[in-house]
Every structure is written in structure tokens, then in C-alpha cells.
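Reminder to self: C-alpha cells first, then the designed residues, so the page reads top to bottom the way the pipeline ran.
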């Protein structure tokens, strides 16, 4: 669309206006394409794929993305961690649309590598302050009533590198410790009811069967509220990377608590003070004290396109800006967009289903005049929380934080359409 003229761009605007109002799209649609008179060999000449039949049905028993989409992959930052056994890969947010993360692209965070467990050998135990200790097979779990829920999972360390200033040049790396899938499983409450919770039971400990034996304490109110013991994601069995055959889903709360390869739930009367809730995932405050148990992930958003890995390549004119917003407290009610570094704001268009504690997709269509831009997004949730600037965050939390950074991200767009990670405080 580089050769699009101004008049075409303005008829494109008209088209958008009428289609937004529910008008007829066909007439306007041509205006956003190239002029047919110029000739288009990819239309006028017969192509290879037009002449010969392709692979037959059944040659791909488990479908894979097109060979032309091979660049759409999880990525790692090699210098970030010492060993791949305890490391992280990042979701390519700039390559995705809608709100569901494809299973094979969900970021991974493992502390002891991927446990490979045959579902027939997997067991879940409930012990501690219960009337009867229980051990479930996977088949046992599938005899309880199931639920399907779409939730985001965000690692508390997401955007952690960005606390002191712009650091990583790509939304995949600044915000890619994030995924959102439909989980299927059994309410944790049903299993605790089956075991018979003692009144002294105030906390549960969730333990993983992997080599790191990940363990986290969760307050009983949350366990009885919306936690799910999940065996499926996006309609099929969990992927090994996501905890096959069983993981805990802790909606809206930091990813670390979503214990994968879930093998044991112990009921106790106080938190266990495990490594991951004392030495890690705490927030060092300006007074030198560390805040424990910042469970809920605060309201946050980011523009996924344009972004450093997704520059503007079509020149000035009609431009689609899009991104994601989410909140551990509920659903997203509004997202505002600024193209001038926070001076002026416009309300973005939310599109797609709106689920509580799930990703929300927003769009903002505008005519780029070819000048420099400073793009920002600011999310608000239905509980009244508003995403803060990085400076607002630092004024409360100090400069020593790593975790729980939900500050507003800025992307600089140059006149050449190249996008870079910058900070405007
Ligand atoms: N058993 C186990 N569970 C685990 C982990 C782990 O290393 N072992 N990592 C945790 C962390 S820190 C995060 S952010 C999420 C990551 O989930 P994902 O790999 O599905 O993205 O899983 C959590 N659950
Ligand atoms: Mo994490």
C-alpha cells in the first residue's frame, strides 16, 4: 500500500466510517487496495499453487502453522538466565491477534525444566487439615463437574527489566511473559469439599511434581473462590510446557502461583514461607522493607503493533494500532491511546469477548501524517483501577523493584516508521 494516494486514503476513511456505522463495505473496500490498472502479476499470471494439486487430506495428522509463518515463535534472551533449565521464553505478542494465545506460543517459565509425566502415572494428593486425605488419578478428576474459563497468566517478573528505564527492544521481551488460554478443569472447591476442609484450614500449599517441586501458599478464600485444577488448554490436553497433565489456575494472580505438574495440595493454618514467596516475588520498598504476597496482578496494557518488532512499513496514511489490556481485578472497561507521549488521549475501540481476568484486545485506527510519534496505552478496569505511569509507580514503590511493573509503556515511532522502546515518565 506504499503507492496509495491521499484521495484513496480519504475514501478509506469514509469506508471505515461507514463500516463502523454498519454500512456496506464492498464499495469502499477497493479503495484500500492498489489500482487494478497498474497490473498485478500475482493476479494476472497463473501461479504454481494454482496449477498443481497439493498434499492430500491426512498428510498432516496434527496441523502446523503455514511454512511462511515460521518466524512466529517463542524467543529467549540468552543473557537473562544462566541455564535453560531455570529460564523463560517469551510469547510473540506482536504476531498475534484476538485474545487467545495459541498453545504452542505460550511463554514458558520453568525452574527445573519440563517434567514429562504420563497422565496414567500422575496423582494428585490432598492432605493436611482435612477430614480424609485423598489421592486422585486423572480419571478420578474427570468425574467431577468441569468448567471452561478464559484467563490471562502473567509472570510477576513481566516488564521487570523495564523498572529503571527502557531496556529490551521488543514487546515480546518487555511484555511477553503473558498468555491467555481457555482452561478446562474442576473447581478446586469441589476437591476440597470431597476431602472435607477442617475449620482450622486457612491456607493451602500447592506443590509441583517437577524437579523444582515448585511450592506456593494460597489463602483458602481464593482456593474456594475461583481456582481451577485444569487438565486442558484451548480444548486439548495441557502441553508439557504448561504442566501436562495437571496445573493449578489461580485467576488474576501472579503466574508463579499457577503450579504446573500439580501433585499435592496441603491444607494448613498459615502460609509456608517457601522460597518463591519470601526470597522471590516480593517487592523491595523505599524504606528497605520487602512487601510479601502481592498476589493480584494490577491493571495493565501494551500496544503490540506498532512496536519495535512490528514497525510501520506502509508509509503515512491509514494505520491500525492494536494492543492488549488486562487486570487481575476484573474486566477491562476502557483503554486510552496517546500518540504524543501522554499529552492527548483518545479512547480505543475494544473488540472481542470481554472476560473477567482475561486479555482484552483494543484497536485505534488513525491517519499517520509521517511525523514522529510517542505511542502509549492506558487501561482501566471495572473495579476503578487505572494503569499508572512509570513515575507514579516509582514514587510509591521506589527504585529497587523487579516484580509487578504495570507502568505505561512508550514506543517511539520515527519518521521512517522504525519503532523503539523509550521512556517518558
Ligand atoms: N511446577 C512448577 N510450576 C510452575 C513453575 C515451575 O517452574 N514449576 N513456574 C511458575 C512461574 S514462575 C510462572 S510465571 C508460570 C509460567 O507458566 P507457563 O509456563 O504456562 O507460562 O508457571 C508457574 N508454575
Ligand atoms: Mo513467574
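Designed residues (425 positions):
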Amino acid at each position: 500500500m506504499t503507492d496509495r494516494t491521499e484521495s484513496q486514503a480519504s475514501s478509506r476513511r469514509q469506508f471505515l466510517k461507514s463500516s463502523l456505522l454498519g454500512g456496506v463495505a464492498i464499495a469502499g473496500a477497493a479503495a484500500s487496495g492498489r489500482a487494478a490498472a497498474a497490473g498485478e502479476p500475482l493476479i494476472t499470471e497463473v501461479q504454481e499453487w494454482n496449477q498443481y494439486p497439493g498434499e492430500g487430506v491426512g498428510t498432516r495428522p496434527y496441523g502446523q502453522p503455514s511454512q511462511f509463518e515460521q518466524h512466529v515463535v517463542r524467543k529467549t534472551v540468552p543473557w537473562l538466565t544462566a541455564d535453560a533449565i531455570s529460564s523463560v521464553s517469551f510469547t510473540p505478542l506482536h504476531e498475534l491477534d484476538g485474545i487467545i494465545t495459541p498453545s504452542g506460543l505460550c511463554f514458558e517459565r520453568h525452574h527445573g525444566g519440563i517434567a514429562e509425566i504420563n497422565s496414567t502415572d500422575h496423582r494428585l494428593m490432598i492432605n493436611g487439615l482435612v477430614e480424609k486425605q485423598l489421592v486422585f488419578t486423572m480419571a478420578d478428576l474427570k468425574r467431577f463437574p468441569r468448567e471452561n474459563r478464559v484467563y490471562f497468566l502473567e509472570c510477576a517478573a513481566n516488564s521487570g527489566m523495564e523498572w529503571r528505564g527502557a531496556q529490551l527492544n521488543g514487546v515480546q521481551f518487555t511484555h511477553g511473559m503473558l498468555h491467555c488460554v481457555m482452561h478446562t478443569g474442576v473447581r478446586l472447591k469441589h476437591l476440597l469439599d470431597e476431602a472435607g476442609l477442617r475449620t482450622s484450614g486457612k491456607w493451602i500449599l500447592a506443590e509441583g511434581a517437577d524437579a523444582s517441586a515448585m511450592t506456593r501458599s494460597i489463602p483458602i478464600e481464593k482456593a474456594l473462590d475461583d481456582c481451577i485444577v485444569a487438565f486442558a488448554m484451548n480444548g486439548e490436553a495441557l502441553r508439557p510446557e504448561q504442566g501436562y497433565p495437571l496445573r493449578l489456575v489461580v485467576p488474576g494472580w501472579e503466574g508463579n502461583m499457577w503450579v504446573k505438574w500439580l501433585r499435592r495440595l496441603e491444607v494448613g493454618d498459615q502460609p509456608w514461607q517457601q522460597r518463591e514467596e519470601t526470597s522471590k516475588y516480593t517487592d523491595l520498598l523505599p524504606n528497605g522493607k520487602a512487601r510479601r504476597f502481592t498476589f493480584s496482578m494490577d491493571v495493565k496494557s501494551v500496544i503490540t503493533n506498532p512496536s519495535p518488532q512490528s514497525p510501520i512499513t506502509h508509509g503515512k496514511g491509514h494505520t491500525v494500532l492494536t494492543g492488549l489490556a488486562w487486570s487481575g481485578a476484573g474486566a477491562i472497561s476502557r483503554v486510552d491511546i496517546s500518540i504524543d507521549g501522554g499529552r492527548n488521549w483518545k479512547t480505543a475501540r475494544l473488540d472481542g469477548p470481554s472476560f473477567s481476568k482475561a486479555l482484552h484486545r483494543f484497536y485505534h485506527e488513525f491517519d499517520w501524517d509521517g511525523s514522529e510519534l510517542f505511542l502509549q496505552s492506558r487501561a482501566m478496569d471495572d473495579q476503578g483501577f487505572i494503569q499508572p505511569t512509570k513515575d507514579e509507580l516509582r514514587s510509591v514503590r521506589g527504585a529497587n523493584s523487579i516484580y509487578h511493573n504495570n507502568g505505561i509503556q512508550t514506543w517511539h515511532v520515527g519518521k521512517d516508521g522504525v519503532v523503539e522502546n523509550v521512556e517518558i515518565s
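Residues 109, 155-157, 255-256 surround molybdenum atom (ligand 2) (CB under 6 Å).
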